[in-house]
Each structure stands twice: as structure tokens, then as C-alpha cells.
Amino acid sequence: MRRAVQGFTLIELITIIILIGIMSVTLFSRMGSVSSTNVNAGRDDLIAALFFAQQTAMARSNIQLIVTANSVSVTENGTPIIVHSKGYPLTFASGVTASPITFTYDKLGRTTAGNITLSSSGGISASVVVEASGYAH
What we know:
Protein name: Prepilin-type N-terminal cleavage/methylation domain-containing protein
Structural class: alpha+beta
CATH architecture: 3-Layer(bab) Sandwich
Oligomer: single chain
Organism: Cellvibrio zantedeschiae
Keywords: Membrane, Transmembrane, Transmembrane helix
Mean pLDDT: 88
Largest sheet: 5 strands, antiparallel
Number of strands: 10
Transmembrane segments: 7-28
């Protein structure tokens, strides 16, 4: 009697190599570049600060959100507000810059409409739109 030969055929090996190649290309293409990740993180921090400023303005008076080239700060009467151990100003990630602007909120959380653009040295940018109602997106 003949013994059955154990192992993989050439077709099976090639199929597995092709599948691994397709999965790796898909995975690495979704990762994005580091500069886009930094810009997106800065955008998220900025939107969070805008919502925080709006909510705080409805409970307190004289609330401003100040965006500089490298940071964002929420102030009350000109003094940065401290939230737990980390307070404002919040510095953007390395290589991310923003267009400077200041928003002053009223007791209803309204402010003047405006746009803020964040960009990186790699040419990646993101825009944040602030509506007159205080809504940011």
C-alpha cells in the first residue's frame, strides 16, 4: 500500500500568499499618515473645546475661546479654565497649526460664526465651522 503524502499543494500555497497580500494592502492603506492623525486629533480637541466653551457660557459669564497658532484655550474673565488635572490652554500635536481666532459666547451659548483651519507641514488640513448658534462641526 502507498502512504499518502502530507503537505500543501503549490496552488494552496499561492492562494494563501495572495490572500495575505490583499489583507496587508487593505490594512496599511487604512492606517493613514502620521500627519493626518495629528491634524484629526487637533480637530477633535478643538471641537471638544468649542462645545465645552458653549456649555460653560450657558452656566457662567464672560467665556471666550481663543485659538492661537499652536493651542486652544477656554477662558473666563481672561483666566484659563482648569478642567481636572489638565487645563487650558491645550497645545496641538507637533507640526499642527491653526488659524488664530477668538470666539466670545453669550448666556445662550451663541457666538459669531467663523471657520478654523488646522494644517500640518505635510499639507494635510481640516476645517472646523462654528455657526452663530455656537454649534461646531
